[in-house]
């Protein structure tokens, strides 16, 4: 049942120009940033070769690419998730799901997996860029994998927040703006971190960006992974509660 | 389990804020019933249907489908219900086949039976040749049929159709009524409408809902009695005075409409038409028209709601 919903979601996404446009736009922007980073590396290379323990191509090209990708996708994911539930409400197709013998949990999971499918395609296309470097040089695949895992977790967290905000409204635009606002806030929370008091440390801990930093540098930390998983579960549970509430308050 | 009625509603109340949209509705639907659910706009028809299909939970009261509690065990209960809401829930970007396959899978049709279920639903709804068309490109009538196909694709025991013929042309309306009658032979059907002939054409039971309350529930024969003409409209070239019309056997009262036009009230089942025509010929009144007036739904409706007591009447006004 979850698979049916996820498949339909993915299919509808790719039947609309939205998915293709987003894939294209993201790819162009990130390719530009990637190529600039490659240029920088080539300029630095003579100096790096003389250094002991100098950063490699993975540090200089791949790590910045991934952190740029996270920020670009922070803008893009709200556009993918906005239609999930609010769009169905608006088009009146929500009753299809509500009348079917499917629990709210499965509806939310199905929709979430549908988006994850799209994000997997997106991530795959982004990964092709650093992987293309392996034609001419050796990559640190450990760091690359850690970075990819980090990016995947960040994207999955963005999507979970998007699913929840989409369940709150029947206007996709409101869902998109809400998701964007929430994600940006959670991303920027760490900026207060330099004040040094307890409150700012808590805020810093809650920030999506803080947990991404280590993974981007190749440090796989269970705390960070647990943070993202909890983040995802929290928002999905909130979305399920919200759909259940729909039936009662509707 | 077979003993349980298909649908059982007991004292169902649904409140939206301070408004009681559905206020203590109880009824049952048995196999082979085609229940017409009548009522003006905003009477609570759609809300009741949403409650039966599990789209809304009742504020209080009990809803059971085949003996399974819709609130307590919605996933099991929903499997036996097919629902066509007022606006057919269609994914415009999918083809008819894709969409129906999706709906069938969603409603738990097994993969092995999938193609056959979809084909059967399409054939019954007269869209067998439309499988590859995009739903968004279909006309309103065909979209409506896809909506019905969606509701019956998993062969539910109960089919709930919210105003299925609205916005269709007369030929489509006839075809859809034919389909509903056919559905009634296998499934229990609840059909909401505010078109009286539709009820007469397809239903064997009628319920009228008004301001959230059931104000009338009867079999179609019962409705027939109530709808029997109780007045005649007579147009005369050279009308006599009202008193000589009232003198005719079977006439209970006479109402003057305009010059030469009268409304003759009579008891149900005892039309004075023949006596009136003979008298008109004998006396040279110049009979131009003699038409039995069937009460419209509105008239019957006002009848029914006013009977409920003065308080409902005032609210309706």
Would you give an account of this structure?
- The complex is a heterodimer of chains A (250) and B (317).
- Chain A has helices spanning 2-15, 17-50, 57-81, 86-91, 94-99, 104-133, 141-168, 172-188, 198-206, 208-216, 222-249.
- The radius of gyration of chain A is 20 Å and the shape is globular.
- Chain A is 82% helix and 0% strand.
- In chain A, helix 3 (57-81) runs parallel beside helix 7 (141-168) and helix 7 packs antiparallel against helix 10 (208-216).
- Chain A has one domain (2-249).
- The two termini of chain A are 24 Å apart.
- Chain A has 250 residues and is mainly alpha-helical.
- Chain B is an alpha/beta fold.
- Chain B folds into two domains: 7-219, 3-Layer(aba) Sandwich (Rossmann fold); 230-293, Alpha-Beta Plaits (2-Layer Sandwich).
- Helices cover 37% and strands 28% of the residues of chain B.
- Chain B has helices at 45-52, 74-78, 96-106, 111-124, 140-152, 170-186, 196-202, 220-227, 242-246, 273-283, 297-307, 310-316, and strands spanning 7-16, 19-29, 34-38, 60-65, 68-69, 81-84, 158-162, 188-193, 205-210, 213-219, 231-236, 251-258, 261-266, 287-293.
- Chain B has a six-stranded mixed β-sheet, sandwiched between helices.
- In chain B, helix 3 crosses helix 4, helix 3 (96-106) runs parallel beside helix 5 and helix 11 (297-307) packs across helix 12 (310-316).
- The radius of gyration of chain B is 24 Å and the shape is elongated.
- Chain B starts with 6 loop residues before the first strand and ends with a helix.
- Mean pLDDT of chain B is 83; it is low at 309-317.
- The interface between A and B is medium-sized, with 24 and 32 residues.
């Amino acid at each position: 049942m979850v698979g049916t919903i996820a498949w339909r979601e993915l299919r509808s996404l790719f039947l609309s120009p939205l998915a293709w446009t987003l894939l294209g736009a993201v790819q162009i922007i990130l390719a530009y940033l990637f190529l600039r980073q490659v240029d920088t590396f080539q300029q630095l290379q003579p100096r790096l070769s003389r250094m002991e323990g100098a950063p490699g191509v993975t540090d200089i090209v791949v790590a910045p690419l991934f952190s740029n990708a996270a920020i670009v996708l922070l803008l893009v994911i709200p556009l993918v998730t906005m239609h999930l539930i609010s769009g169905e409400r608006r088009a009146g197709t929500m009753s299809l799901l509500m009348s079917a013998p499917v629990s709210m949990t499965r509806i939310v999971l199905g929709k979430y997996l549908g988006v994850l499918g799209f994000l997997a395609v997106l991530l795959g296309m982004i990964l092709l860029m650093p992987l293309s470097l392996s034609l001419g040089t050796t990559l640190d695949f450990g760091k690359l994998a850690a970075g990819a895992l980090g990016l995947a977790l960040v994207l999955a967290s963005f999507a979970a927040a998007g699913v929840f905000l989409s369940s709150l409204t029947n206007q996709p635009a409101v869902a998109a703006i809400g998701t964007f606002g929430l994600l940006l806030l959670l991303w920027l929370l760490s900026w207060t971190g330099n004040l040094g008091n307890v409150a700012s440390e808590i805020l810093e801990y809650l920030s999506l960006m803080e947990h991404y930093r280590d993974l981007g540098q190749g440090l796989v930390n269970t705390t960070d992974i647990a943070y993202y998983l909890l983040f995802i579960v929290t928002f999905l549970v909130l979305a399920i509660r919200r759909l259940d509430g729909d039936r009662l308050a509707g | 389990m077979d003993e349980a009625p298909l649908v059982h509603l007991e004292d169902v109340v649904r409140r939206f804020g301070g408004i009681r949209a559905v206020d203590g509705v109880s009824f049952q639907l048995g196999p082979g019933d085609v229940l017409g659910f009548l009522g003006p706009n905003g009477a609570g028809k759609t809300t009741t249907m949403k409650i039966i299909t599990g789209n809304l939970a009742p504020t209080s009261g009990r809803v059971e489908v085949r003996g399974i509690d819709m609130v307590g065990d919605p996933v099991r209960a929903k499997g036996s219900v097919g629902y066509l809401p007022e606006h057919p829930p269609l994914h415009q970007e999918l083809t008819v086949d894709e969409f129906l396959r999706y709906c069938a899978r969603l409603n738990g049709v097994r993969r092995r039976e999938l193609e056959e279920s979809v084909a059967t639903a399409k054939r019954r709804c007269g869209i067998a040749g439309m499988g590859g068309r995009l739903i968004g490109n279909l006309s309103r009538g065909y979209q409506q049929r896809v909506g019905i196909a969606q509701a019956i694709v998993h062969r539910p025991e109960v089919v709930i159709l919210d105003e299925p013929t609205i916005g269709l042309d007369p030929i489509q309306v006839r075809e859809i009524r034919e389909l509903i009658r056919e559905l009634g032979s296998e499934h229990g059907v609840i059909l909401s409408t505010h078109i009286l002939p539709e009820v007469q054409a397809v239903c064997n039971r009628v319920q009228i809902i008004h301001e959230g309350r059931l104000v009338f529930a009867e079999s179609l024969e019962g409705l027939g009695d109530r709808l029997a003409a109780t007045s005649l409209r007579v147009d005369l070239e050279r009308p006599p005075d009202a008193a000589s019309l009232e003198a005719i056997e079977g006439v209970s009262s006479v109402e003057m409409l305009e010059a030469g036009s009268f409304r003759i009230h009579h008891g149900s089942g005892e039309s004075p038409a023949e006596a009136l025509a003979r008298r008109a010929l004998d006396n040279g009144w110049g009979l131009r028209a003699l038409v039995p007036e069937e009460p419209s739904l509105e008239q019957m409706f006002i009848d029914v709601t006013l009977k409920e007591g003065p308080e409902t009447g005032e609210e309706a006004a």
